[in-house]
Amino acid sequence: MSPELEQLLKQYPKSVKVVFKNFPLSSHKFAKKAAAAALAAGRQGKFWEFHDELFKHYRNLNDKKIVDIAQKMGLDEAQFNKDRQDPEILGKISLDYEEGQKIEVKGIPAIFMNGRRIKNRDMRNLKNMVEKQLEKTR
Fold first, then answer.
1. β partners of residue 117
2. 93 lies in a domain?
3. What is the Cα–Cα distance from 42 to 117, expressed in whole angstroms?
4. CA neighbours within 13 Å on the CB side: how many for 128?
5. Measured at the alpha carbon of residue 126, what is the angle toward residues 106 and 135, in degrees to the nearest 5?
6. Is 92 helix (H, G, I), strand (E, B) or coil?
7. Is pLDDT at 43 greater than 90 in this prediction?
8. Based on the structure, what is the number of domains in the chain?
9. Could you say which of 38, 42, 97, 114 has the lowest number of CB atoms within 10 Å?
């Protein structure tokens, strides 16, 4: 998770909520496997850490790199491998992707605030956008 998002969550714990949805791009052959791996890591309490490592290595992802990240994080490897094949996890990825298509997500990250797409995806402006939204609701 970006430092900007973490800061917003700390500053506005009752007003800001992050909802993560999977949208594996078809142009990235390991995107779906990476999504499944992050959700499997999430079952062991390591979703965001795994997510962040995947993004650091997105240009050279492969099955070995995914397993290496899991080992580096100390995940139960047998459970991790089982979970990333779990139909429930794979189904969630498909549902998230379908939802993204319905709301016309074209690329990632796609950021929505109160149901509206944020066109300026610069995370440095996010705090100002949140504060403007909070002002409107007061």
1. 112
2. yes
3. 26
4. 7
5. 120
6. helix
7. yes
8. 1
9. 114
